From TrEMBL:
<feature type="region of interest" description="Disordered">
    <location>
        <begin position="32"/>
        <end position="66"/>
    </location>
</feature>
<dbReference type="InterPro" id="IPR019814">
    <property type="entry name" value="Translation_initiation_fac_3_N"/>
</dbReference>
<dbReference type="GO" id="GO:0043022">
    <property type="term" value="F:ribosome binding"/>
</dbReference>
<keyword id="KW-0396">Initiation factor</keyword>
<dbReference type="GO" id="GO:0003743">
    <property type="term" value="F:translation initiation factor activity"/>
</dbReference>
<feature type="compositionally biased region" description="Low complexity">
    <location>
        <begin position="42"/>
        <end position="53"/>
    </location>
</feature>
<dbReference type="InterPro" id="IPR001288">
    <property type="entry name" value="Translation_initiation_fac_3"/>
</dbReference>
<protein>
    <recommendedName>
        <fullName>Translation initiation factor IF-3</fullName>
    </recommendedName>
</protein>
<dbReference type="Pfam" id="PF05198">
    <property type="entry name" value="IF3_N"/>
</dbReference>
<feature type="domain" description="Translation initiation factor 3 C-terminal">
    <location>
        <begin position="144"/>
        <end position="225"/>
    </location>
</feature>
<dbReference type="GO" id="GO:0005739">
    <property type="term" value="C:mitochondrion"/>
</dbReference>
<dbReference type="GO" id="GO:0032790">
    <property type="term" value="P:ribosome disassembly"/>
</dbReference>
<dbReference type="InterPro" id="IPR019815">
    <property type="entry name" value="Translation_initiation_fac_3_C"/>
</dbReference>
<dbReference type="InterPro" id="IPR036788">
    <property type="entry name" value="T_IF-3_C_sf"/>
</dbReference>
<dbReference type="Pfam" id="PF00707">
    <property type="entry name" value="IF3_C"/>
</dbReference>
<feature type="domain" description="Translation initiation factor 3 N-terminal">
    <location>
        <begin position="67"/>
        <end position="134"/>
    </location>
</feature>
<dbReference type="InterPro" id="IPR036787">
    <property type="entry name" value="T_IF-3_N_sf"/>
</dbReference>
Amino acid sequence: MLSRLFLQSRATTLSVSYRRLAVVQLRTYKRPTPAAAPPLPSSSISPASNAQPTAPPAKKLGRQRRDEEITARFITLVDENGAVHRDVRLKQILGNLDRQSFFLVEVDPQAEPHPVCRITPKKAVFEKTKAAKRQNTARPEAVLKEVTFGWNVSPHDMGHKLSKAEQFLAKGNKVKIEVVAKKGQQRMPRDAQEAVIEKIVSQLKPFSKAMKNPSFVQGATCIIVFEGKAATE
């Protein structure tokens, strides 16, 4: 009986001690400080600007800026009759412009106080562009074609080779005629060689605009160069 009472008393004491310890822990407990939130990334979108959108420069366009490509709010206007109007609002001009017939072309973007713009007929602009393209189109470099045969060539073979040379010249190419002394063939006398040269020149000269005089190399090979006419000549 006494042992039972002792155990109950001991359990009560321990229970009270645990409660006091729990109260002390609650009083001394500190809540953990919440971790600071990571900084938000800065926005890549800049605030809206009041500036007008910029058009590509005339150099990138390959021509003068026109119509909505012009960025100035006010311009100096040259109308279709050549009259000059200063301090004109661009938006007003574009609103009244006959777009089917005219362009508003920026002819002097650096002018002060405002860029100079001219009302120009579309037909005139297109014709000017075509003329500039034709002027800037370079003629392809002439190709050198070579035609070779021997001094003792038959009239039929020489006629065939010279006909090919005529075709080359008609396309604007240069043609190099080379008459050679082939091995095993008897060397022709000088007067016979001159007859062959005369035949070549008389047949090809009408198809060429220039010719270099015949020249002999190593005494046996004759070279004649003809320059073909352009297709438009």
